[in-house]
Write a structure and sequence with these properties.
The chain is elongated, with a radius of gyration of 17 Å. 55% of the residues lie in helices and 6% in strands.
Length: 139
């Protein structure tokens, strides 16, 4: 199983935004430089996140991006689903012959476990770990 680069970029970008003053907006250029991501590609990720209300976008001289909700309210699952969509990772039960559906059920259970873990991990949880381990410069 592999998530797209977009999800990786989005997760890191959201952690960076969460680490900033919640009233400040961060420019697309700063975010792209901070994450070493092409601005056009990052813009597409931020658009997806904005559509889900996870980031707020502001235009103008002091425009940019900031979190759309508090870091405590944004889970890794929210971010992942915003980028990857809601389709299940595994779809294999085309017909009801027992074995295929059994395999699909096992894979769905595994995905549900992962979704639960991601849903229970917020951006604030990551910030707390960063502070605890003094990893602020690694964000």
């Amino acid at each position: 199983m592999k998530f797209s680069k977009g999800t990786n970029y989005a997760l890191h970008t959201m952690i960076y935004l969460a680490s900033q003053n919640e009233k400040d907006t961060i420019s697309l250029q700063e975010l792209a430089e901070q994450r070493n991501v092409p601005p056009s590609y990052l813009s597409k990720m931020l658009t997806k996140l904005a559509k889900k209300g996870l980031v707020a976008s502001y235009s103008g001289a002091y425009g940019g991006f900031r979190l759309g909700k508090s870091a405590k309210e944004i889970s890794f699952l929210d971010i992942t689903k915003a980028i990857e969509g809601d389709l299940p990772l595994f779809q294999g039960c085309d017909k009801d012959n027992g074995v295929e559906c059994l395999v699909e059920n096992i894979m769905k259970n595994a995905e549900n476990e992962m979704d639960t873990y991601l849903a229970n991990t917020s951006l604030q949880d990551v910030l707390n770990k960063v502070e605890k381990h003094d990893l602020v410069d690694s964000i």
